[in-house]
Amino acid sequence: MTLHIDIHVLQSVPPSNLNRDDTGSPKTATYGGVRRARVSSQAWKRATRRDFSQYLDVDRLGVRTKRAVELLTERIQTLSPGLDFGSASTLAQRALEAAGLKVKAGRKAKDGDQPLTEYLVFFSNLQLDRLAEVAVASPPDKVDVKAAKAALSRDHSVDVALFGRMVADDANLNVDAACQVAHAISTHAVATEFDYYTAVDDQNPAEETGAGMIGTIEFDSATLYRYATINVPALLRSLGDTEATAQAVEAFVRSFATSMPTGKQNTFANRTAPDAVVVMVRPDRPVNLVGAFEEPVRGRSGYMAGSCESLANYAVDVAEAFGSPPTDTWITRVGSRTDGLASLGETVQFDDLVQRVGDRTRAVLMDRP
After folding, report:
1. pLDDT of 116-167, one tens digit each?
2. Are 69 and 115 in contact (CB under 8 A)?
3. Cα angle vertex 164, ends 278, 52, to 5°?
4. Helix then strand then coil, % of the chain, to nearest 5
5. Which of 134, 167, 204, 252 is least surrounded by Cβ atoms within 10 Å, i.e. has the fewest?
6. Where along the chain do its domains lie?
7. Alpha-carbon torsion 333, 339, 341, 346, what sign?
8. How deeply is 333 buried, as exposed, middle or buried, from its count of CB atoms within 10 A (0-12, 13-18, 19+)?
9. Integer distance in angstroms from the first to the last C-alpha of the chain?
10. Are 3 and 254 contacting, i.e. CB atoms less than 8 angstroms apart?
């Protein structure tokens, strides 16, 4: 069985710096021979993952951290209140090492003396709970290796199942990502601009007119094309349950569409809702439709109408050329500027779109051989 859920989003973003590089400049990319605004996939994955907490219980979510010893110590002390902090911390370290993870000493000033894993590791909260139980139930001075590894090999959270986990120390702990997220790019050419600002010292004497601070902030504005896809069978393999898989699909579609990276948000108040969300159910393979914008959209009275027309035309052309149209397409769109998308599928309210994607996922998984 193959089943892919493709999510396409068109979103207009005002002056902003959603995702900056090492110099503070908004990230960019060259595509179709022109410079585009860009927001990295990592930035939108994190925004999506943080948004999950609005819809999912904490035991269905995970944490990506080097501070697993600290988290395990808290759980161990909850299970064994009589155990002092030092003994609980030592036991937590042994449990992680038994599971196949290397632990090193933390830097005192920064990490409060707590040991750290050598790199960021993605755990589900349930996995940390199970590993703490294994640690407490093991014989003194030796944590059961088989049980420790098993604790990190099951009870995957929604975010671990979607975004995957790579463990360099033990490939058996790896989790293949069921979701792929593309870098968002503008549908048109973009030039970075500069905001020169001054800040006045409120306590300046009246005769002093100079600024207390001056500086510049780089920004751009763009109509972004965003794309992500979910491999539903892969998600099912990690979560192991049809209903959990359908709920994970619903959560991802909702959070990916409505979340936004928080870079410089206090400066620009740039949070917008998508102008259009198009979800396509594909029985064969995912299709990123960014080719619709290889020739940049030319703005006459804005970019959104032209972007919608280009996306719709390209989607039809791809389906006709390869004979592989989606089995279902649902669209949530705002205003007449998005009328160009109407021919692709049924226009529905966003909550209805999320529900339909979940229901279709349930139906297909329940009918699988």
Report:
1. 999 999 999 999 999 999 999 988 788 999 999 999 999 999 999 999 999 9
2. yes
3. 55
4. 40, 25, 35
5. 204
6. 4-56+178-202+216-366, 63-156
7. positive
8. buried
9. 8
10. no
Instruction: Show Cβ contacts of residue 4 under 8 Å, excluding neighbours closer than 6 positions.
Output: 229, 230, 231, 232, 281, 282, 283, 284, 285, 286
* 142 three-class SS: coil
| Beta strands 184-186; 103-104: pairing state | unpaired
Residues in Cβ contact with 205 at an 8 Å cutoff, skipping those fewer than 6 apart: none
Q: Distances in Å between the alpha carbon of 3 and those of 66, 246, 283, 314?
A: 34, 12, 5, 22
Ramachandran class of 23: left when φ > 0, alpha when ψ lies in -120 to 50, beta otherwise:
alpha
Smallest CA-to-CA distance from 159 within 244, 258, 75 is with: 244
User: Could you give the 3-state DSSP secondary structure of residue 24?
Assistant: coil
Residues 196-238 have pLDDT tens digits of 888 888 888 877 777 778 889 999 999 999 999 999 999 999 9
pTM higher than 0.85: yes
